[in-house]
Amino acid sequence: MFQKGDKVRPLNEPGEGTVIDVQGSKVIVDMEGLTFHFDALELVKVEFDSMIKPSMTKVDVKAADKLRSITAKKELEKFQTPKNVAYELDLHIHELLDRYEYMTNAQILDYQMSCCKRFLSEARQKKWKKVILIHGVGEGVLKSEIHHWLHSLDKIQFHDAPYRTYGYGATEVILY
Q1: Which of the four pLDDT bands, split at 50, 70 and 90, describes residue 85?
Q2: Which of 85, 139, 172, 176 has its Cα between 20 and 30 A from that of 130?
Q3: Res. 55: pLDDT tops 60
C-alpha cells in the first residue's frame, strides 16, 4: 500500500510528510524533520487527497500542535545535563586573553582572579554543584591566591581536583 518515498498526509492531523519505512501495518513518516509512527489506516497518499474531505477544525489543529509540542519536550528531556557535572574554568592567561604580553604579572593575576570570581558567582546563580578551577602548577602564586579567596567564602568546600584528570594544577570547588 505505502512505499518508501511516498508523499502522505495523516487523516486526523495537519501537514504532510514522506514515508521513511514500512513495517507491516506501521508506517514511519518524516514530517518537517520529525519522525512519526502511524498505522496505515491513519494515512492517505497525497495523490488521493482529493477523495478525502477535510475533517480538521481549528480546535483539532491546536490540539495536534499541543501534542507535537509535548512530544518535542519529551525528546528534549533525553538530552538533559547530568546532575553531577563539574564545570571547568581554565585560568591560564593564554586561555582567557589573546593579547597579554604588555600586562605585568600583577595585572595578569588580577585579571585571572576577576575571571575566577565571576565564574563562581555565575555557578552559584545557576545552582551548579561542582566547579573545577584550572590554575596550573607553575610557582603556585595563582593557586595560593585562589585558595586564600576561597577560604573567605561561605557554603563551599574545596580541595585538589582529581589527579588523574588534572594533575596537580586544579582545584575542585563544591557549592552548597
Answers
A1: confident
A2: 139
A3: no
